[in-house]
Amino acid sequence: MPSFILIFLTIFPFFQTKERVINPEFKSELEKIYNQQIPTIDINQFLKLNSDSLFILDAREENEFNISHLRHARNVGYIWFDMRSIYDIPKDRTVIVYCSVGNRAQRIAGMLIKAGYKHVYNLYGGIFEWVNEGHPVYTNQGAQTPQIHAYNNRWSVWLERGSKVL
């Protein structure tokens, strides 16, 4: 009987769960930089949110954002971040902040929380993990692209999919 099950799972792979497990070494690096006071949201939780009721903020710089970003994301940058760039976001709405891996995003998320935003989350693993899990990214023209800004040589090793741009 066990051989029947093995053959069945081989012939019908769609019955197998294929949820990606984050690279343990990447996870270890993220845990070193993440501040436990800033809530994170994993990609599966993020995908379950009602997209009509949330705001997605990209905390990368404009040149990174211009290469690719999550659909419907608003670039707010990091170095020149200004709270006036989010004046239109009600403080009771859900806000997801991301960057390459989450370090810059958590800092921007912290500023939002200090300013009174109630539902702010750092996307766990950032755009790197988003792409690693096989989710699409887009150009400013709305076209899907394989290109991802790889941030720098130290962090680019954690980008497993896509076409790296530095």
UniProtKB/TrEMBL annotation:
Q: State the InterPro entries in the record.
A: GlpE_sulfurtransferase, Rhodanese-like_dom, Rhodanese-like_dom_sf
Example GO molecular function term? Answer: transferase activity
**From which domain of life does this come?**
Bacteria
**Alphabetically ordered keywords of this record:** Transferase
Q: Which Gene3D superfamilies match?
A: Rhodanese-like domain
The Rhodanese domain, residue ranges: 50-139
Keyword RNA-binding assigned to the entry: answer is no
Against Pfam families, the record matches this protein to:
Rhodanese
Report the protein name in the record: Rhodanese-related sulfurtransferase
Native species = Albibacterium bauzanense
